[in-house]
Design a protein that fits this description.
By secondary structure, this protein is α+β, with helices and mostly antiparallel strands. The chain contains 30 helices and 23 strands.
Length: 998
């Protein structure tokens, strides 16, 4: 019992060490669990939301639409739980200029169901539900009416879509039609599209750019009022996928098995069958046209024949009359009247030659008959010509049919191709990577501080330990005094750390996340396993340090332990050997130098601890500086143009005319901009319809006219880059990179995320969904956005343009129509404010789809999520620095109580004692800061390498001010600690402190 009381008394006496270990453990556990818990809560709530709304696991698209036969084939694939046929149509409407939207049918099979936020779901024809983004942009509300116009492009597939009937069989009947939706609409609800969780009022709304292949909004309509049997896509749910977390690798493997089966068993067969259906439908159309023409020609021929028969009967009647009259005249000149009468009663018999001669004579003698014969002959001639022409046309159609219908392509995609899903996943993964890296530094510092504190604690109790061991107590029992002390401190600190880690930090992160994404049903959850392991990690580290300290002391005999520890043997330090310097140092300066360099453990622990904390602060500030400069570097250094204007293909000429007539442009470059995807072609061939198996990135595909390839360098800074280390990259000379016809230039932001480099093969998807394998000729420095630059000729070669072979050299009008230059990069005159105002005015023009001012983007770009995380990390690092300095300072004082008492006996005033002790701490702190500043830059570079976020590349930069802030903050913490240490020095009693321990 006395042993226990003494142990408790010892613990109470060492309350400062207890608090230090508990605080370090609290901060470490909070960092370890907090960022992880925040990201995990977001992952889980999003996964629950996706399961509740039935977000598709797989989506199948086809260049020729999907027939009922395609849907039936997908249902038969092993592993497919449910298939939903999707019908949609692109429409336009007037909203401060021409805007586009996708009319999406709400599926009846429970897949991709919109989440109702306000109002009710549409049920009748003409009712729609819209997103909050549309409500915000349009100013409309529930009950508002809207009239839309179907885009002509929405019926592109209808010309080749006459395939399977509504019965779902493989028999083609040529009756399928493209979907058509009502045009007079009424808003009855506001919904959240599960495919896009971006907050319309958050960061994504401010920096997003949609190119011509993506509509501005999505309208959800019921099946009532939707016509057309052709499907625009098919969405699938995979068996067992809902049981897995959508962000885990197990989910990806489950879905991949099904996509592989579709690629291997269904895709090829249905592509061929679909094209054959289109060919059969075309042949049926030709056959129907021939039958209809033959019928019309037969009717016309019958009419001509009837007219000719009537004409011939009339002529024959005249011939008969003339022949009869001639015979009557001959009889009158004969024997008697009776013979004449008999002769007159009988029609003379004429041979064919005579009759034909008489017919020609009669027709020639009558203008009316002549005209009638000419009309009949002309009608017959025209009919014969029409027959020949129609037959030739039909034969030509038959010959051209196979070449006019392209090969049908299927594209099998998973959730990774959804922009909203991939952005959320990448954001959370990147933030979680920071949460996995920073606790390592906290753990190292915790072990170092625990070793320092517990080693001093054990050393102070040398004589007591020797006494207990001499009395027969086991070394394990004696060591348990310190092990339980450290364990209790870790458990209390860890418990508080779990509260901060699973409640405080996640709540803070989720507030920021909800400003970027809409995540219904978000709630905080506790992970018992991860929390327990987090505490256990620090418990093991601290106990290991405590065991080491105990072993170092207890390996001696009880007699040796009960005697005072022999002072260290005197030795010279390196500075003493530099006589010119040493001789000019004062007495107290020499004492300070010896105290610093003779006690190596104290030097290492103090400098290492301060350096680690300073490095954490620099690292956080480095990430902040890197993010803060992204907009400036991208929109002022890399993008040399001031304005990017994008229009619909049909309005491209009007857009260029509008911009030119304003007189603000000093130079410009016409380009074509499409949204697409870049996929690492690591598996499968380049024609594979499946994307994303090795990594995929949404890109902005920029095609440049062949005659103006050299002008691209005047609008965009072209600098080749190569992979570097620790967050750096080798950047080539400006202007040394040229766009040619041998490959594409890929933005560094996309190349870094996918591991692409010059010479790599990638799979590109253009705005029409056509895929092709391309060679990467170079990687260009780019920080925001994922631009891929391609020449006109190489674009045509990749995507099978009809002018692929002639674009480069031909100047014909046919070749010039191969691509529509739907965008313009322009340099403007005037200030940044006037350029921003001009871009806003352009967006009001009906011919302009989007106008982006680089000046505005440079000023408005910000990354709230990363800024919040950086602020959290810097705050925690500052707290750690304060605890570390407090621990080291108190340990330093406790080690040198007799020394301080001696100084007081010698006549030192309290202020002089303060200066004597604090000077050593300040020098050690300065040494730690000097070491921690470059270490922070090093760690910052390593961490930014892990932040592979969509369309962002972090080019590490640390501003001089950040180094100053980190140094000043650490020094300020050191000065603050002095305020706590000085009273301890004042309370040292020289008499009791100098008493002999014996």
């Amino acid at each position: 019992m006395a042993f226990v009381k003494d142990m408790l008394r010892m613990w109470a006496h060492s309350w400062k060490r207890f608090i230090s270990i508990a605080m370090i453990t609290l901060l470490g556990v909070a960092v370890l669990t907090g960022i992880y818990a925040g990201c995990r809560d977001a992952f889980r709530s999003t996964d629950r939301f996706f399961d509740a709304q039935g977000l598709h696991d797989v989506q199948v698209l086809s260049t020729a639409g999907l027939s009922n036969g395609d849907i039936a084939a997908l249902r038969k694939v092993n592993g497919v739980a449910k298939v939903q046929a999707e019908r949609s149509q692109e429409v336009t409407f007037d909203l401060d200029g021409r805007k586009s939207a996708t009319m999406q049918e709400i599926g009846t099979d429970g897949i991709d169901q919109p989440y109702l936020q306000e109002g009710r779901m549409p049920k009748k024809a003409g009712e729609i539900a819209v997103t909050r983004k549309f409500i915000r942009d349009s100013g409309k509300h529930i009950g508002s009416r809207l009239t839309v116009t179907p885009e002509s492009a929405s019926s592109d597939t209808s010309d080749t879509s006459d395939t399977n009937g509504a019965d779902g069989t493989n028999e083609t009947n040529g009756t399928d039609e493209a979907p058509s939706f009502p045009t007079k609409l009424t808003i009855v609800g506001v919904v959240l599209d599960p495919q896009n969780l971006s907050n319309p009022d958050g960061y994504s709304a401010m920096t997003s750019f949609r190119s011509t292949a993506t509509t501005d909004y999505t309208f959800f309509a019921p099946s009532d009022g939707v016509t057309g049997t052709l499907c625009t896509s098919a969405t699938l749910l995979v068996k067992g996928a809902a049981a897995e977390s959508t962000f885990d690798e197990s989910y990806e493997n489950t879905v991949k098995q099904v996509t592989d089966r579709i690629d291997g068993t269904v895709k090829t067969d249905r592509q061929k069958a679909r094209r054959q259906e289109l060919l059969d439908a075309g042949n049926r159309k030709i056959a129907d046209a021939r039958a209809e023409a033959d019928k019309k020609f037969a009717d016309a021929q019958s009419q001509i024949d009837a007219n000719r028969q009537q004409f011939n009967q009339q002529v024959d009647q005249i011939v008969s009359m003339q022949a009869g009259a001639a015979a009557a005249g001959a009889a009158a000149n004969g024997a008697n009247a009776g013979a004449a009468a008999a002769a007159g009663a009988t029609t003379p018999q004429l041979d064919e030659t005579t009759r034909e001669t008489m017919r020609e004579t009669i027709i020639a003698a009558s203008p009316e008959l002549t005209q009638a014969k000419q009309q009949l002959d002309q009608a017959q001639s025209q009919l014969n010509e029409q027959k020949a022409s129609t037959e030739q046309t039909l034969k030509t159609k038959e010959n051209e049919l196979k070449t006019s219908i392209p090969q049908v392509r299927w594209y099998v995609q998973d959730r990774q191709q959804l922009g909203g899903f991939s952005a959320l996943k990448s954001d959370l993964d990147s933030i979680q990577s920071l949460g996995n890296a920073f606790p390592v530094v906290f753990l190292l510092v915790a072990v170092m501080m625990s070793l320092t504190a517990m080693a001093r604690m054990v050393e102070e109790d040398r004589s007591l330990i020797g006494t207990y061991v001499g009395l027969g107590y086991g070394r394990l029992a004696v060591a348990s005094r310190y092990l339980l002390f450290a364990l209790l401190a870790c458990l209390i600190g860890g418990g508080l750390g779990l509260i901060a880690g699973f409640l405080g930090i996640p709540a803070f992160l989720l507030v920021v996340l909800q400003g970027m994404y809409v995540m219904p049903g978000l709630r905080l959850e506790y992970d018992w396993l991860y929390g327990s392991l987090g505490i256990a990690l620090f418990v093991v580290g601290v106990l290991a340090a405590t065991i080491y300290a105990c072993v170092q002391e207890m390996r001696q005999t009880p007699a040796a332990l009960m005697r005072p520890k022999a002072p260290r043997a005197g030795s010279r330090i390196l500075l003493e050997r530099i006589r010119p310097v040493w001789n000019r140092i004062g007495f107290l300066g020499k004492v300070t130098a010896r105290n610093i360099f003779r006690f190596k453990s104290r030097l290492i622990m103090t400098v290492g601890g301060v350096a680690g904390c300073t490095a954490l602060i620099v690292c956080g500030l480095a990430i902040n500086d890197t993010v803060a400069d992204l907009g400036i570097k991208q929109y002022r250094d890399i993008y040399q143009y001031d304005l990017m204007v994008v229009s619909d293909d049909s309005d491209a000429s009007a857009m260029r005319t509008k911009v030119a007539s304003d007189g603000r442009v000093t130079s410009s470059l016409d380009v074509r901009i499409e949204s697409g995807d870049l996929t690492v072609a690591g598996s499968g061939d380049g024609d594979s319809g499946k994307a994303g198996s090795s990594g995929s990135e949404s890109i902005q595909l920029v095609a440049v006219p062949e005659k103006h390839l050299s002008d691209l360098g005047e609008m965009v800074t072209l600098q080749p880059v190569s992979s570097g280390i620790l967050g750096t990259s080798g950047v080539g000379k400006t202007g040394s990179l040229k766009l040619d016809d041998d490959g594409v230039i890929v933005a560094q932001s996309a190349a870094s995320a996918l591991g692409v480099k010059a010479g790599s093969k990638v799979r590109l998807t253009n705005g029409d969904g056509v895929q092709a394998t391309a060679k990467v000729s170079a990687v260009n420095r780019n920080l925001i956005g994922s631009d891929v630059y391609v020449s006109e000729t190489y674009y045509a070669k990749l995507f099978d343009s009809k002018d692929a072979k002639n674009t480069k050299n031909s100047k014909s009008s046919e070749d010039s129509e191969a691509l529509t230059w739907n965008a313009m990069l322009a340099k403007l005159s005037g200030s940044d404010t006037s350029q921003t105002d001009y871009a806003e005015s352009l967006e009001e023009d009906s011919s302009v789809m989007k106008a982006v001012s680089c000046a505005h983007m440079a000023d408005s770009f910000k990354f709230d999520l990363m800024g919040a995380v950086v602020a959290l990390i810097v705050a925690l690092a500052g707290g750690l620095a304060l605890v570390v300095l407090f621990t080291l300072a108190n340990t330093n004082v406790s080690e040198r109580v007799r020394e301080m008492a001696t100084l007081k006996v010698l006549g030192f005033f309290d202020r002089e004692v303060h200066h004597y002790v604090n000077r050593e701490m300040m020098i050690l702190t300065v040494m730690g800061v000097i070491l921690g500043l470059p270490l922070g830059r090093l760690v910052g570079g390593m961490l930014t390498m892990a932040l592979n976020m969509p369309s962002l590349y972090f080019e590490v930069e640390v501003k001089p001010l950040s180094y100053v802030i980190a140094a000043v903050a650490t020094m300020a913490f050191a000065l603050l600690v002095q305020l706590f240490v000085n009273p301890v020095l004042d309370r040292i009693d020289p008499i009791s402190s100098l008493k002999s321990v014996e």
